[in-house]
Amino acid sequence: MTSHAAITGVHNTKVGEVAGSTCMSLHTEAALGALNDAGLERGDIDGVLCAYALTETYPMLSSAFCEYLGVDPNFNAGLHAGGATGSMMVMQAAALVNSGMCRHVLCVTGDNRLTGMTRDAAVAALSQFGHPQFEVPYGISVPSAYALVAQRYMHETGATLEHLAALAVKHRKHAAMHPDAHMTKPITMEDVANARIISSPLRLLDCCLISDGGAAIVVSAADAATDTRKRPVSVLGTGQGHTHEHICAAPSLTDFGCKTSSAHAFGEAGVTTADIDVAEIYDSFTITLLIELESIGFFEKGAAGEAALKGELTHGGKLPCNTHGGLLSFGHSGAAGGMFHVVEGVRQLRGEADIRQVPDAELAFVHGDGGILSAHCSMILGRT
Amino acid sequence: MTGKPAPVANADTKPFWDACNENRLTYQHCKSCGHAQFYPRSLCVQCGGAELEWRDAEPVGTVYTCTVVHRAPSPAFRADAPYVLALVDLSDGFRMMMNVINCAPESVAIGMPVRITFEDRDGQRVPQAEPAD
User: Fold this and answer.
1) What pLDDT sits at residue A119?
2) Inter-chain contact A140–B86, Cβ cutoff 8 Å?
3) Complex prediction ipTM
4) How far apart are CA A146 and CA A243, in angstroms?
5) Which of B67, B71, B83 to mutate to probe the A interface, most A CBs <10 Å?
């Protein structure tokens, strides 16, 4: 157990409309919070990983952040993998500490997408995820790309709108149990069904939020985890999968890279889906989570929706999932969106999840997906 | 002038976009493994081969998946909404994103046969799909 890289500090800022925030202030608040959580000082950090931001588009965000914070690490780099970035930063940080190159790596990300830019500007910026020649000229948006997947997936597996709605309702319930969540007002199945249509079959409440927020994680070498304040959480297994970037080039609309990434992570950790106590899985849209739950192997194809309807994905069910409320209700602040899942996984394993706590959680599965189910990173985290 | 974005060709894609301006839909055929490739690349993504030739495609296909977009990503598409975004499987064995036009958006469904038509974008024609019947 001691040979594994360890997560020793986590923090998320308030998420939603964070008045007076900037991209860099959210980074800083998250970073200092994670350092404080770990019981470390700025000077203890010898590696820094950042992602990207829409509101402050530095070509070298990671360097800009180190300059802003006033640190001069041995290793500093940016990662760009959309929603998979949060998990990937932790995977990369684990590799850095396992190699001996770093002792304590700070992974930090944040963006004030809600107050720092207009909603229209955010939607337009995100649509540039499309291929510039072969998708953008057709008016693709991120929701419409996921809608293309949803239509085909529902056509082949029999998943229904009710299945998707059950996921949205459950996430809102979970977010209401988190003091930092963006959207906490309860919603019903009818609310989801009657919400404004965005791109068929996806309605407004099938879509993630646009939020201000930041999150940070400290990953420490196994022998350095004793420097820190709290019980470390081990990174037991990791994996990635990359089948495409653009949805027009995806080899399948029913099987995605999460299959490979999770198989690798489970193999490395030596555990199976049945061993997982709590799962924090990327949920940019209701369909995203439904597909990932089935593709990863937690449920048979076509069964995740029924499970959601039966309450299997919440406390007391087979697989409590996205206990913080996910991107659908806790909030989505760019790369920080995927990092919130990691933070929640760690809190569950430390027993710090308050009223959201899954009793005796020992093993967590965390998954990030970037692009249009394009880039995947899975992790198995374990209580020590 | 549509205001909608026109694709900007590069060295990989110029033969494709030039052919569109002659109302021809083309794709890359790999001489080594026979793979029908779209979008255009400098290698065959299937076998890694470098010998790719341009072929004219049969301008027909079927809708693999589709969605009716109500919330346009930019002002240029707002007037079109609701519009159909689709992935179309061409009969020659490759897939493209297009809009399905010249029909009621709600009439478009998975499996629907379509044919290719071309739409002008500031002097560059782009392929689009319309119902085959």
Assistant:
1) 84
2) no
3) 0.98
4) 16
5) B67
